[in-house]
Amino acid sequence: MMSLFKHTALAAMIGLSTPAFASLAYVSNEKDDTLSIIDTESMEVIDTIEVGARPRGILLSKDHTKLYICASDDDTVQVLDLATRKIVDTLPSGEDPEQFALHPNNRHLYISNEDDAIVTVVDVSNKDVLAQIDVGIEPEGMAVSPDGKWAVNTSETTSMLHWINTETFEIEKNIVVGQRPRHVEFTKDSKIAWASAEIGGTVHIIDVDNLEQIHEMSFKVPGVNQDRVQPVGIELTDDGKYAFVALGPSNHVAVVDAQTYEVLDYLLVGSRVWQLVLDKDQKHLYTTNGVSGDVSVIDVEDLKVIKSIKVGRYPWGVVIDPSS
Amino acid sequence: MSLLFRTAAVLLAATFGMAPLKADSLEVHVGYVQWVPDQGPVLSNVIPEPEDAGLKGAELGLQDNSTTGKFLGQTYTLKSTVADSEAEAIAAIEQLRKSGIELFVVNAPEQTLKSMIAKAGADTLLFNAGSKADGLRTTECNANLLHTMPSYAMLTDALAQWLNQRRWDEIFMITGPTDDDKDWANAFRRSAKRFGLEIIEDKPWTFDADLRRTASKELPLFTQASDYDAVVVADVRGDFGEYVPFNTWLPRPVVGTQGMSPVTWHRVVESWGAAQLQNRFRDLAGRDMNGEDYAAWAAIRSIGTAVTSLGSAEPADVRRFLFSDTFQLAAFKGRKLTYRNWNGQLRQPIPLVHPRGLVARAPFEGFLHPHTEMDTLGFDKPESKCRING
Known about the structure:
heterodimer, A: mainly beta, Methylamine Dehydrogenase, Chain H, Thrombin, subunit H, 2 domains, four-stranded antiparallel sheet, 28 strands, B: 390 residues, alpha/beta, five-stranded parallel sheet, 17% strand, globular, disordered N terminus, Leu-bd (chain B), Peripla_BP_I (chain B)
């Protein structure tokens, strides 16, 4: 009994002694060629660092030590060391890299080359180009399923989801969706994929086992012309409760019940909302607002916008480092 | 031996089993005919228009369709003719029709287009990617004609909306001598009335001097008036208009066919993914994409979008689909584009540009419409006699 108490006390002390480190959010500013770094505790920009030309897609290495940056107009993927905040390397990326996704093996990076209608697969450990896969016109969104089985690419002008087998690097299935598909997000169990179609105004729910669409949803924001309702970024909560969908120039984020696909609310954020990310404990959602040049913060529990943070010009991508 | 034979038979059956898949493959043939009459000599001949304007847009559209088609077993071919005369252009339509082509994209003047429609016959679908004539959208209606090129009225409505929201409502107008100039000017006069602008001076351009030497002397006198907010120029072929900016009597902006212009497309348009389209076009054509290229591209992409969805390239099927609620064209203008069901005009935002930058994009917020703001540009249903879908 005594011994148990001692252990608990010890554990509590260790818990207390850990400094309350806030995790950092990284935002790529497409027209400033910079990254803004936001402290998620104070919700303020604490640093701005220069990167390559026209940074768009950004992602974190699985060990959280590096940030990969698509420097679209430099035709390269840059590697930022998070400890020193210096660009330490570049990867061969093919032309005009826009978005990418990292395989759970922390090695295979799938990059969509927007101008070339190609997906390039690079091994980040030795910079080998493992494959270049022909896809539709203007490949954009990239996602790898958490179980590592599938890489999905969206081609905007071809309006398809290309399902790439990550063992063979070959396309196994093409699913036609709404016009201008932009983004794919998998559920944690890799069973369901959500895909947004910007011009179609739709979100397509795909059953990954059968590679078939099981539901299609659309949005109606009160007082906003239907043409302006353009779904782009999607973020799913780990508890399976919510899906958040950024609706572009309608300046709203849709809150969707992730089980019934019912839209629960529309939250007003900045102008032309593009990408979304949840913070480490999933209490806050960060949105990049391209035209207004800021980031909105949404309280997930209250479903309210609580703050907007000024960043650079045309903020595009956003990631949060949960370990920082 | 017997086993081997059986295996072969199974393989054979399997091969035949594949046959229906083959039947899914589809060949789509599109005809493109261009005839652009010589504009005659112009004063400002510094920047010539590309001769393949339109054709290269069609070629890019075909490439885009083919990339999509290869995942679906659909192949596209383009048979194109750039004619040297009206007769040659009309003959080209006849020949293409005889070779079995039923889908056409045409970049030609109004009258030529009308002759082509007659030659093509009823079971075809034509896209007007050249003529901006308002008559084709209001009175001379054709059930199998769609317009991807905006009308003059759409362009001038875009300009008039912009002038209205800037509150620059007193206009000094200069109109050139050609029929196109007069059509453009008539369209603007209608737009001025619609959007509450007052044309305080409406002067025809009558000079025939070489303005490269004398613009700075002639134009200040020509544009004398007590006051105005902007000068509107109607000079479609670009004869004298380039010499109006900075030479006006009063320090006022020049807009219209020169200065800041409402256009179908321009190299400065880069938002909404347009940068990618511009890059693709430059790779293909070695020059910037213009309005004719865009209209031809949009026509071929409309066909491609329909075929992707239908798995058929029958003109009647394609037409039905293009007018249905399910059709939407993703065309880099920030909105989904659809066809007006009364006259076949492709609804589209209109960029307002100066040679090195985008100024604005019509329609503007605040100009309301019961169905879609995009129908504040051009002839709305009650203003058009066309009812091509009954």
